[in-house]
Design goal:
- By secondary structure, this protein is mainly alpha-helical.
- The protein has three domains: 47 residues; 81 residues, DNA polymerase, domain 1 (Orthogonal Bundle), CATH 1.10.150.130; 175 residues, hpI Integrase, Chain A.
- It is 50% helix and 12% strand.
- It is built from 14 helices and eight strands.
- The N and C termini lie far apart (75 Å).
Length: 355
């Protein structure tokens, strides 16, 4: 007999079934209407009566690998594939003999706790989310009866890297520009391009000579460089495809550059310079002036921070950076905007006091 009840704003249904000679409850929640919950429970009852209900006892790691190979691998990029392989290696190491229908919340919590002893919290959360996506699939496919990931938490004994937003102050940015503007090295050209455009490293590395329009002073961004695959890929989001208007001061310098045949910033091996290679050069130049140590991505933050400090509308800054929406820009640069808000509050009160 099915049991259907409302939990919050959605409906939950559970059905009593026999599995491995034991009576258990197969439960599913999140139905928007009672009718949908009833339809699901009727389907389970029918499968139970006709002996179609799965009593899978296959290995968890093997089912996870099959799911990844069929549903995920064809659609994702190499960097994401590495995370799935990390999860598979973890499951093979810790759960090699566990059946797909016998995992409990306790098992999963212990797995994440142990993983968190040697990895930062963001990595633990990534593993949790990947396994969680598989569990949703496995429940829908009747391999698993209950979502054992629901009440599990993530923690870590390894400190994360400093996530504070690092960027160059105006004086530091000017020193860097003066040091590299006449330098003909590929790294310097890439650094200068990012300072003036706010492009991501993958976008700068993917530029070709045809992306530079010196008549209209623009750079077209319509692809990104995937270092792992050594190939062009789509940009991060559809809004990352954009035409960035560049200042004359930059374009007059870039006009003198000799670009590579396949890539604008092409190394001796015929490929774009690596992120690590450019970061080493950037560090060396920043050290010369005792400037704030930043990575190449910090140049993007420097670009945005400079524009915001000059009262450029955040909507325009968001479009220039290629963010999916302005809320991302607001979130990333919240502390800068808060600082500016404090300044504007003082100016507002000063103006009102003059009345």
């Amino acid at each position: 007999m099915a049991s259907i009840y409302k939990r919050g704003k959605t409906w939950t249904a559970n059905v009593s079934i026999i599995q491995n000679d034991k009576r258990i409850r197969k439960t599913k929640s999140g139905f928007p209407t009672k009718r949908e919950a009833q339809t699901w429970s009727n389907d389970i009852e029918f499968k139970k009566q006709t002996k179609q209900l799965s009593t899978s006892n296959s290995l968890f790691v093997e089912e996870f690998k099959d799911w990844y190979t069929i549903f995920k691998e064809p659609q994702i990029q190499t960097a994401t594939k590495l995370w799935y392989h990390t999860a598979i290696n973890l499951l093979q190491d810790k759960w090699s003999d566990k059946k797909v229908n016998e995992i409990t919340s306790k098992d999963f919590q212990l797995l994440l706790n142990e993983y968190g002893n040697h990895h930062v919290k963001s990595s633990v959360l990534k593993i949790k989310n990947l396994i969680g996506m598989f569990v949703v699939y496995a429940i829908d496919d009747d391999m698993i009866q209950k979502d054992f990931t629901r009440n599990v938490t993530t923690s870590s004994k390894v400190s994360s890297k400093d996530k504070s937003l690092k960027f160059l102050e105006l004086s530091e940015m000017r020193k860097l520009i003066n040091r590299i503007r006449d330098n003909d090295s590929i790294s310097c050209k890439m650094i200068l391009t990012s300072i003036y455009s706010g492009l991501r490293f993958s976008e700068v590395a993917a530029l070709t000579k045809d992306d530079f329009d010196f008549q209209n002073n623009t750079i077209t961004v319509n692809k990104s460089w995937q270092m792992q695959d050594k190939a062009f890929k789509e940009t991060k989001t559809s809004t990352s495809n954009r035409v960035v208007i560049m200042p004359e001061s930059y374009m007059s310098i870039a006009k003198k550059w000799t670009f590579g045949e396949d890539y604008a910033f092409q190394g001796k091996d015929g490929l774009p310079i690596s992120n690590n290679g450019v970061n080493k050069q950037l560090k060396a130049y920043l050290d010369m002036d005792n400037s704030t140590p930043i990575t190449f991505h910090g140049l993007r933050h420097t670009h945005a921070s400079y524009l915001l400090s000059k009262d450029i509308a955040i909507q325009y800054v968001s479009e220039r950076l290629g963010h999916a929406d302005v809320n991302i820009t607001l979130r990333v640069y919240a502390h800068l905007l808060d600082k500016k808000r404090d300044q504007e509050t003082k100016e507002t009160l000063s103006s009102l006091n003059e009345l």
